[in-house]
Design a protein that fits this description.
By secondary structure, the protein is of the alpha/beta class. The protein has two domains: 3-201, no CATH class; 213-346, 3-Layer(aba) Sandwich (Glutaredoxin), CATH 3.40.30.10. It has helices at residues 3-26, 30-50, 57-82, 109-124, 130-139, 144-160, 166-169, 174-183, 191-202, 242-256, 275-284, 304-308, 336-346; strands spanning 213-216, 221-223, 231-237, 264-270, 292-296, 316-320, 326-331. Helix 6 runs parallel beside helix 9 (191-202).
């Protein structure tokens, strides 16, 4: 589809980003970034126009949609994540340009979800409930099929990408999840979220922890049940994860504080794809010796281990009690708060 147009579009996109990267990330006024990208949409549109005669009407509609939608996708990332702009900031005044009902929104559903979040917060100031936001989606989308699709993506995202939905996750727990799933039982797109929500429930407090198998640096097979009778704190990490590497010394420091306590076990599980990369990292970092048991599960985020513990981001800390039941599958990072929790749990006979 539109192959002749695709190559020039790719070229000017790469050139645009390279030429304007410094401006985009250093300008003081975020609205200048929107103005820049608005002109970029027009530039790309002129390229599409050059190939109009060779495009079908459907191809042209898709290219027109993608031309602006991909720009909006970056603008949402820039405004929400990089600049952390409030919903009432004038930067977001471009939102009315996004069509709420285009079926092509299924290819980039997050744009509409982010738009609806900002519009909701402009109207209500605070998110009142997950159900209220779902109602808001239906209210502002005349295309009923698209609304159902957006809601299915939204439910999945609440579990898979909690950091992107911080305001929502403050109101989100297993009770709310069960209520939402019951309300959405007739959603034709429920298969989008059914599997991930199933594992979400399996990783909640009080559930039996999955008895995973892992390898240690000596290739010995280790099971979670090998640590029965002990409080277990797990650091799930990878060598390619910058945040994981930054937190690792703090995990070791925390473990050192309990080196004389036989009632707790600290485990670090790498989910790298290569055991050799993991072993080399452990071998070349001499400070990774001591009170932490280093283990490896290949491609662990995509295995039963990753599913059962809902490992959708790294690093992730999991706290398991002496009976092998989950205390917290999203425990806080190594900190005084976590240390205080461990002390309380260890004081309970």
């Amino acid at each position: 589809m539109g192959k002749a147009a695709a190559t020039p579009l790719t070229y000017i996109t790469n050139s645009f980003i390279g030429e304007n990267q410094k401006f985009i990330f250093q300008t003081e006024d975020p609205k200048d970034v929107y103005s820049l990208f608005d002109s970029f949409i027009n530039q790309r549109d002129s390229v599409i126009n050059c190939y109009s005669s060779s495009l079908t009407s459907t191809e042209r509609r898709i290219l027109d949609f993608q031309n602006s939608a991909r720009v909006y996708s970056f603008l949402f990332y820039y405004g929400r994540i990089i600049r952390n702009l409030t919903p009432n900031h004038s930067y977001w005044d471009f939102l009315p340009q996004i069509d709420n009902n285009s079926i092509y929104n299924k290819s980039l559903p997050h744009n509409l979800l982010y738009k609806f979040e900002i519009e909701y917060l402009r109207k209500h100031n605070e998110l009142e409930s997950i159900s209220d936001f779902i109602d808001f989606i239906h209210l502002h989308t005349n295309n009923f099929d698209l609304a159902n699709y957006l809601i299915a993506i939204y439910i999945k995202e609440l579990v898979a990408s909690p950091s992107y939905w911080e305001r929502h996750n403050k109101l989100f727990d297993s009770v709310i999840m069960r209520k939402i799933l019951e309300e959405q039982k007739n959603n034709p797109y429920r298969e989008i979220y059914e599997r991930i929500t199933e594992f979400h429930f399996a990783s909640q407090k009080g559930m039996e922890a999955y008895n995973f198998l892992a390898k240690d640096t000596g290739n010995q097979t280790i099971k979670l049940s090998d640590f029965a009778g002990k409080l277990v704190l797990i650091d799930v990490w990878a060598t390619w994860c910058g945040a994981c590497i930054a937190q690792k010394p703090h995990f070791y420091e925390l473990a050192t504080n309990y080196k004389n306590n036989n009632n707790i076990q600290f485990i670090a599980i790498s989910v790298d794809s290569s055991i050799d990369i993991w072993k080399n990292y452990i071998a070349t970092n001499k400070n990774l010796k001591g009170e932490v048991r280093e283990l490896f599960i290949p491609n662990g985020m995509r295995t039963e281990f990753g599913k059962r513990f809902s490992i959708n981001f790294l690093p992730k800390y999991i706290l398991i009690d002496r009976e092998g039941k989950i205390i917290d599958s999203n425990a806080p990072e190594p900190s005084k708060e976590l240390e205080s929790t461990l002390n309380t749990l260890l004081s309970i006979n």
